[in-house]
Structure formats: structure tokens, C-alpha cells
């Protein structure tokens, strides 16, 4: 499927799928959305509830690596070790990575290469990219995930239900419910009613929260202890 790079309203870039008229991030602001939905409602919230020195994130799908990049910076700022599992069936190309130019989002001079390393590192194995951040990229489909109680926080960042409704159904969410530890949480930008009900049907406690700029709402689902 043809993909091209566009600039979103906050100046950060994202990838557009022409055929589907679908984007990897909100066109109102890729960076703003990633910070609001995954970092603030996901990592900040989890760390506010649990006194942790270390946590594990599971992301569906890894895509551009923007969420992973922000999580690596959050790990340093909060002095918490983050192990990050990124699932992706259709990795982006080197040219796309270069064009996204997310290196410029990093302030610390000694961290400038971490985005490149995230994309260049081997798949299917843990790679330590900083003292606080380890990454393992898994090239598989969400429906193939078979992990049990390994993750504290799931970043559920699939394409929207309009174009991939099958990824917002109970049969797929069940894999992420299983992969979460008790008390773990899943955050996502979509608030589609069928997705909300599928999550609730699996036993998640679902909250509808204020969304990032340009979007009214987002969703957070917590697995009971
Ligand atoms: C909304 S984009 C991801 C955005 C990503 N988190 C980022 O920050 O760039 C959705 C991602 O899911 C991947 N994807 C789509 N269908 C998938 C599937 N069935 N299994 C695994 N990955 C899938 C896409 O290739 C894409 O990278």
C-alpha cells in the first residue's frame, strides 16, 4: 500500500496510507497525541498508582517508533527502567524513518542517535539502547501474540476501526488482556463503542478520558487485580 510522509498540525510528521486515507497518528498533531494518550494517560498514570522502579510496555504496532522514542525519554526523566516490546507486522523503511526525522524531538545531545538505533537494531531480541531503556521488536500480527502476564502497560495503537475493524474485536483484545499483568492498563486513542464493549466484556474496567488536542476523547482500560 502506498505510504507518504505528511506534516501534522503541531509540526511533527507522520505517515499517511493513501488508499485508506488513514494516518499513523492524529493529523491534529502526532507528537501531541503520542504524549497525551500513551505517555500521560499510560505511563504517568501507571507510575502514579504503582511505586515502580521498572515497568514493561507492550506496543501494538511499533510503526514509526514515536511512542517508543517518547517512552525512552520518559524512562530517563522519571528514573524508571522501561522494557519495551514493540509488535509490528509491516515495518517502515529506512527512507521513511529518515523522512520522519524524529531525532529532532530529542533534547539531550547524548540521546540523539537513539531513534536510529531503535530502527536499526535486530528484531526478536532484547537490545539495551540506554541505561534505562531496552527494546525488543517482534515481527508478528496482533492475532499471533501469545504472551501471558508480561506487560504493565499496553499502548494499543492499531489503525482505526474504520479501516481495520478486525483489530478492535474481543478476539484480538483478549490477547492483550492475557499479556497484561493484573492491575495493568491498556491505553488507546479510539473510543469506538464496539471496542469499548469488547474490552468491558473481557473484564477490563474502561474509562473514557479527555482526548489530545483536536480529539474529544480517548480510552483507558484497566485489568482487575
Ligand atoms: C496507527 S499505526 C502505528 C503507529 C505507531 N505506534 C507509531 O507511533 O508510529 C498502526 C501500526 O500497526 C501496524 N499493523 C497493522 N496491522 C497489523 C497487524 N495485524 N499486526 C501487527 N501490526 C499491524 C501497522 O503497520 C502500523 O505500523
Any overview of this molecule?
The protein has 225 residues and is of the alpha/beta class. It has a single domain, classed as Rossmann fold (3-Layer(aba) Sandwich). 30% of the residues lie in helices and 28% in strands. The protein has helices at residues 30-49, 66-78, 94-100, 114-120, 170-179, 193-202; strands at 3-7, 13-17, 22-23, 54-60, 81-87, 127-130, 133-138, 151-156, 180-188, 205-210, 217-222. The strands form 2 sheets. It has an 8-stranded mixed β-sheet. Strand 6 (127-130) and strand 7 form a beta hairpin. The N and C termini lie far apart (41 Å). The model has no long low-confidence stretch (mean pLDDT 96).
Number of domains: 1
Gyration radius over CA: 16 Å
Structure summary, number of beta strands: 11
CATH fold-level label = Rossmann fold
